[in-house]
């Protein structure tokens, strides 16, 4: 099998020159000037009085520096991939051991970490070119073993993979060779999601009352986990495993989102909620569902019956904009393309693929929400079917894709689109 690593920049998308650089985007967030120093002083005594009140009420866990409200545009748009993506790569995953299903994917500068908890109950480690480096699957109940790997996190700096086993209630630490480094047993909490930031493990927990808690754990020194309250919708939903936390584009903070919430809370490294992004959609559903315990199969019919537009669990951050999935009352899902500068949220019907020419996209796939990257995984059989249907002039990479020799029983192929920092069409 031939391994290809295609990277195409937007301005060169109709040439045959490849750019194989693949560096995660990382730039500081623009200064929003939301500090108290920037308040308009003609408000005089009222403003001063409010500053005193706010200062006295602030605390470590809820020091809001900004609160953005995004308004939904009525016009539904189609947008070209080349308008929002800067470049892309096509990465066939080497087939030494078969990946049954990609349930979670972590992309870093050097590695791809893949969780398959549906079929093989394994964690696959690949290099960024797709070559398979190793597989972790120590099934059992002893030290360093798990029964069901519910979630994973990866530290590029520490070169360690952390696995949460929901059935044994523990978090296990492995090195890149799959060697057992240590484990941490939880005290009855249910972990919903976890990420690694600079030596600490951040996880969303549910207590016995269903309340959201942020757990911060230094998984190397064995200290007791710090627990911090998080926002709560006031209703419960069972039957799905939602994602709750998402890294920001600069990876200096992360976002927390309760299931079906219309708000994202930005949280810094110490657990302080420093900002909030709220979508001015249907606020009624938050009120209607408060105090209720809902099953997932009840949610969609109610959304459709009441005509709600609801924010779901897939979110990808970039510097100037972000993408987030929606569920709509008319029975279809979609995406919002949200401009951070103008505070507009445009409903997107299709991302028309004018880059690699394979398929257009209607939503973010749920198995990967890495900041700055829109990632698609496809079975080789689906790609080969599309290649047979494509005209020669449709994609400058058609011949390279065909010559890759993808076999239908090979591991999935990743298509990784790097998001632009800003979008000109949104600024008009």
TrEMBL record:
<protein>
    <submittedName>
        <fullName>6-bladed beta-propeller</fullName>
    </submittedName>
</protein>
<dbReference type="Pfam" id="PF17170">
    <property type="entry name" value="DUF5128"/>
</dbReference>
């Amino acid at each position: 099998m031939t391994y290809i690593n295609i990277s195409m920049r937007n301005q060169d998308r109709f040439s045959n020159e490849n750019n194989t650089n693949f560096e995660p985007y990382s730039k500081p967030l623009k200064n929003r000037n939301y500090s108290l120093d920037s308040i308009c002083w003609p408000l005089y005594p009222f403003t001063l009085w409010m500053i005193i009140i706010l200062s006295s009420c602030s605390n470590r866990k809820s020091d809001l520096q900004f609160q953005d409200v995004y308004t939904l545009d009525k016009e539904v748009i189609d947008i070209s991939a080349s308008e929002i993506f800067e470049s892309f790569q096509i990465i066939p995953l080497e087939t030494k051991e078969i990946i049954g299903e990609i349930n979670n994917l972590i992309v870093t500068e050097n590695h791809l970490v893949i969780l398959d908890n549906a079929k093989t109950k394994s964690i696959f480690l690949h290099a960024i070119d797709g070559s398979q480096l190793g597989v972790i699957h120590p099934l059992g109940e002893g030290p360093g073993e798990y029964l069901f790997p519910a979630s994973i996190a990866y530290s590029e700096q520490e070169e360690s993979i952390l696995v949460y086993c929901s059935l044994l209630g523990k978090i296990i630490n492995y090195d890149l060779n799959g060697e057992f480094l240590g484990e941490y047993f939880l005290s009855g909490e249910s972990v919903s999601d976890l990420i690694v930031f600079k030596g600490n493990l951040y996880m969303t927990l549910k207590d016995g009352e269903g309340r959201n808690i942020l757990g911060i754990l230094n998984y190397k020194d064995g200290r007791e986990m710090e627990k911090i309250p998080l926002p709560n919708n006031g209703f419960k939903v069972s039957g799905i495993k939602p994602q709750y936390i998402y890294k920001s584009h600069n990876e200096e903070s992360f976002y927390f989102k309760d299931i079906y919430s219309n708000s994202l809370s930005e949280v810094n490294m110490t657990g302080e909620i420093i900002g909030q992004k709220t979508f001015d959609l249907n606020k009624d559903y938050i009120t209607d569902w408060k105090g209720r315990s809902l099953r997932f199969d009840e949610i969609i019919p109610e959304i459709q019956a009441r005509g709600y537009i609801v924010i779901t669990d897939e979110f990808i951050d970039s510097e100037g904009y972000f993408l987030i999935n929606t569920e709509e009352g008319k029975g279809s899902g979609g995406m919002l393309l949200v401009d951070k500068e103008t505070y507009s949220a445009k409903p997107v019907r299709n991302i028309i693929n004018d880059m690699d020419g394979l398929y257009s996209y209607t939503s973010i796939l749920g198995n990967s929400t890495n900041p700055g990257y829109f990632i698609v995984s496809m079975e080789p059989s689906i790609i080969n079917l599309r290649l047979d249907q494509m005209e020669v002039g449709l994609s400058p990479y058609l011949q390279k894709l065909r010559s890759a020799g993808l076999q239908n029983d090979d591991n999935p192929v990743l298509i990784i689109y790097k998001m632009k920092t800003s979008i000109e069409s949104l600024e008009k």
